[in-house]
Amino acid sequence: MHITIWNEYIHEQNNPAVVAVYPRGIHQALAKLLAEPLEKHHGLKAEGLTITTATLEEADHGLTDEVIKKTDVLLWWGHQAHDRVEERIVDRVHRAVMQGMGLIVLHSGHLSKIFTRLMGTTCNLRWREADDRELIWTVHPAHPISRGVPQPLELAAHEMYGEFFDIPVPDELIFVSAFSGGEIFRSGCCFFRGKGRIFYFSPGHETYPVYHQPAIGRILANAACWAYQPERSGIITGHSPNVEKDWWR
Ligand code: ZN
Predict the structure, then answer these.
(1) Ligand 1 geometric centre to CA of 102 (Å)
(2) d(Cα 18, Cα 25) in Å, to the nearest integer?
């Protein structure tokens, strides 16, 4: 499995509060966080797993044709610079998702071009940065993404994301978060688009050490394995022969 972690990588270079939490960038923290549970719980050893990163300032935002072709699962973290992501790169990622590339959209990535295009809604929500405690509750215990996740999983302090979250009704709802302010939020949602599997996971505001917590790594590793499909292909559409009459000839 090849995982590519995309991060716009701006806050970590210009905001000391974020540098303190993610000195090497959110993408590097995620790469480190994912490796252990993928090996420990999913049996993926170094030879069967590669994790690379890509950032906004690289050529093609680090998402060249070649990179997208070999990527099985793409993680996406963006916040300040959604507008600076070029449409032709969004087209490329969108095409790959429709053909079966997995996509995990994190936190403020809810407003990214790729996520809003795939959802077809505004993807807006309510928010507050006030050190709320967040409890992440599993509402789909049979789902592979919730395997091994503590009940509830507590984030001692985090940004509040609340309803209404303007997304289509998720195809599968895995987590619902409760905040100390009383709000709730659909914090772990699965969607199917074309042949692609998409997981949105809301935890991960840049000033909190969310991506240093092993339980978060477990969720993201589970999600990567759920979203992974070994083959990429389009959906067959168009003229169809009469299967009853023709299939056996
Ligand atoms: Zn945030």
Answers:
(1) 23
(2) 9
